[in-house]
Each structure stands twice: as C-alpha cells, then as structure tokens.
Specification:
Elements: E1 3-14, E2 17-28, E3 32-36, H1 43-51, E4 58-63, E5 66-67, E6 78-81, H2 93-103, H3 112-125, H4 141-153, E7 159-163, H5 171-188, E8 191-196, H6 199-205, E9 208-213, E10 216-221, H7 223-228, H8 233-239, E11 242-245, E12 248-250, E13 253-256, E14 259-262, E15 274-278, E16 283-285, E17 295-307, E18 311-318, E19 323-329, E20 343-349, E21 354-356
Parallel strand pairs: 3-8, 3-9, 6-7, 7-8
Antiparallel strand pairs: 1-2, 1-4, 4-5, 9-10, 11-15, 12-13, 13-14, 15-21, 16-20, 17-18, 17-20, 18-19
Helix pairs in contact: 2-3, 2-4, 3-4
The chain binds adenosine-5'-triphosphate.
Adenosine-5'-triphosphate binds near residues 19 and 37.
Length: about 350
C-alpha cells in the first residue's frame, strides 16, 4: 500500500507548552484512519498543521512524497470538514456544494453546465439527490453533514481531514453516519483522517487507529490490536474498558495501594508502570469461592449495576474508594442480583492482565 502522508518529528508549541511533541507517523493511501485522543491531546492542532492553517515549529510533512512547507492550504489538495459543518446559511444545498468549485483559486469551474453536473454527481455520491434547492437551514443534521462532505469532496482532494465530524449529531444519527462515511470514502477512494474523542467511534471506523496522548502518538495500529493490546496505560484509559492500577513490579507480583497481584511473567515496556484488567475479563464470586492457581482476586463492595442491552456493567468500591467495573455479557448468562454494600470477590486470570512498566 502506498503512503499518502508522512509526518516526521512534527512539533508545535503555544508559548511554553507543546501541543504536538515530535509526532511521527505514515498514513496509507485509500484508507479510513481514526485519530483518537482525549480533550487537549493535540488532535485539532495536528489537523490544522496538516491542512496548512498552522505551520509546525519543527519537523517535516510529506504529502505524496513532497514537502508541504510553505504550501498554502488551498494548494495542498487536502480537504477539511469542520465539526460545525461551516455551511453558508443563505445558500441552498447545491449552491453550498458549488461554492468551493466556483471559487477555488486553482482551476475554478465557471461553466454553469459543468458546475451543475459536478454538483449533481456529488449530491448523488452522498445520497442527497433531489435536495439541490433546499435551504441548508431546512435539512436535518445528518443531511447537513453530507452537504459539508460533498462541498469538500467536489474539489477532488487527495485526502480529507474530518474534525469530530459526528460530534454535532445525536447518538442515533451518529451511529448511522459512521457507516455512511465509510461507504462514501470507499466510493471516492481517498484517505480520510477522522478525529474523534470517542473510543467506540475510532475503533468502529478506522482501518488504522492513531492514539494521541499529550501531543505524542502513543499507538498506531488496527482497531483490534489497540483494543486488545493497548501500548500504554494511557491508551488503556482512553479505551474506557480497563480497570487500571498504579504500583510497581516487585519480584513476581504487581504491588500497589490496591494490593498484590501475582504475575505470569509477561510484561510490556511502557514509560509508566501500571496494571490493567479489562472489564469483561472479570468474574464476580462470593468471598469464600475457591481460587485456582492461575487466578487473581480482589475484594470490593457492590455499588450498583447498569443494564445496557447486551451486557450488565457492575460497579464496585475497592478499599480506598477506587471504583472497579465488571462487564458481564448477557449472552453468557445473566449475573445474579448483587446486594448493595455487600462484599464480593472479583476474580480474573493472571494471563488476562496487562502489565506495563
Ligand atoms: N491557538 C492556541 N493558543 C494557545 N494554545 C493552544 C491553541 N490551540 C491549542 N492550544 C493548546 O494546545 C493543546 C492542544 O489543543 P488541541 O485543540 O489541539 O487539542 P484537542 O485534542 O483537539 O482538544 P479537543 O478535543 O478538546 O478539541 C491544548 O493544551 C490547547 O490548550
């Protein structure tokens, strides 16, 4: 697969703080890439630097093998879809889409018939044929999202940057638009770089998922690799499906304020030591249940359960107040009702824990 974009050691600071700190990655052509990171991790700054709205302080950006230094945003061949869609409210759907083509600096399209044909093709690509004359104030959020996308795609960018493109939509529509965006990308065959703060969105959409942590790429891998094998404790935290413990490896155990967890030997190199166990790898047992040699246990008080259709998530308070979460999939068996404030044993296999440090 050929490379569309390559960043090497890209750094951008605002005052004394580095929004991007030596960012390195390569993106394949014709792929859907998710960029996941918590608020303030540098996602928008990274998109703005790639788009050319900001210049990096150091490092290089190669787009199709050519350096982008000093190239104006409109000359980069990179499209940008903004979170709030940034449509012109006084223009119709078709006029919004035509705007970019008619007004672009390089090779503007002025012939009305050519323009109309290109706009029609684009509206058909995003599933909005027949909406040409509608005011953009008289269409739904999902339709506005498609107009924003059509307006970018009509200029035939070689890559598209999308800044939280589903953030302004309600949860239901967000789910449907995930699929739509993937289909539209496949039809036009260019790389989409989709920024999101939602781990489920990033994992569902990306052929490749980049995880940004405090201005650095903490991991770049396929969704299942990120989910099952987060590279650092911070990545595990963003995924919202791991219980994390601070502490250190001492001989054959991980020891911290929450207790002593015997290890099975495997350990991944990471800047910060931590112990992680996924919510759905834990079983809830009575305190007197017998443990086998390959299991680890901790005791905690039941707080509450939350039913989500396919699973029940149960919350427990560890001694010291830390909340521990267990996800029980209902396809296995429905967990019994637990009694509030009663104490239970939370048990997992040594080999299911991830040990960082
Ligand atoms: N124009 C600016 N001036 C000063 N600091 C800035 C500026 N833009 C961003 N920052 C800082 O750079 C860091 C990264 O910001 P950025 O907006 O890229 O993060 P983000 O991951 O997109 O966050 P969010 O998800 O909340 O939009 C933050 O600490 C932010 O305060």
């Amino acid at each position: 697969m050929s490379t569309v974009l390559q960043l090497s050691q890209v750094t951008k600071s605002y005052g004394a703080s580095a929004a991007l700190d030596s960012v390195d990655f390569s993106l394949p052509d014709n792929a859907y890439i998710s960029l996941l990171g918590p608020s303030g991790s540098g996602k928008t700054t990274l998109l703005r630097v790639i788009a050319g709205f900001e210049e990096p302080d150091a490092g290089s950006i190669l787009f199709h093998g050519k350096r982008l230094d000093g190239v104006e945003p409109h000359d980069r061949g990179i499209g940008f879809v903004f979170q709030n869609f940034a449509l012109f409210p006084h223009l119709s759907v078709a006029e919004n889409v035509a705007f970019g083509l008619r007004n672009r600096k390089v090779d503007p399209v002025t012939d009305a018939r050519v323009l109309a044909k290109r706009v029609q093709d684009m509206l058909s690509l995003v599933g909005l044929s027949g909406f040409d004359d509608r005011a953009v104030t008289q269409i739904s959020g999902g339709q506005r999202q498609r107009v924003a996308l059509a307006r970018t795609l009509v200029t035939e960018p070689k890559m598209v940057l999308l800044d939280e493109p589903l953030g302004a939509l309600d949860a239901n529509l967000r789910g449907r638009m995930r699929n739509e965006l993937k289909i539209i990308r496949e039809r036009c065959g260019v790389t989409f770089l989709h920024v999101t703060g939602s781990e489920s969105e990033a994992l569902a959409m990306g052929d490749l998922v980049l995880v940004l942590d405090r201005g650095r790429i903490a991991q770049a891998a396929a969704s299942d690799v990120v989910y099952n094998s987060p590279a650092t404790a911070s990545v595990a935290r963003f995924l919202n499906c791991y219980n994390l413990f601070a502490g250190d490896v001492v001989a054959d155990a991980f020891v911290g304020p929450a207790g002593r967890f015997p290890l099975n030997g495997s350990r991944r190199k990471a800047p910060q030591p931590a112990y992680a166990i996924r919510y759905d790898r834990v079983s809830i047992r009575s305190r007197d249940a017998v443990l086998s040699d390959d299991e680890v246990r901790i005791e905690a008080d039941f707080i509450a359960s939350e039913y989500s259709g396919a699973a029940v998530n149960s919350f427990f308070a560890l001694d010291g107040g830390h909340v521990f979460e267990v996800e029980s999939h209902l396809s296995h068996a429905r967990p019994p009702a637990f009694v509030e404030k009663d104490r239970y044993a939370l048990v997992w296999k040594k080999e299911d824990a991830l040990v960082f440090g």
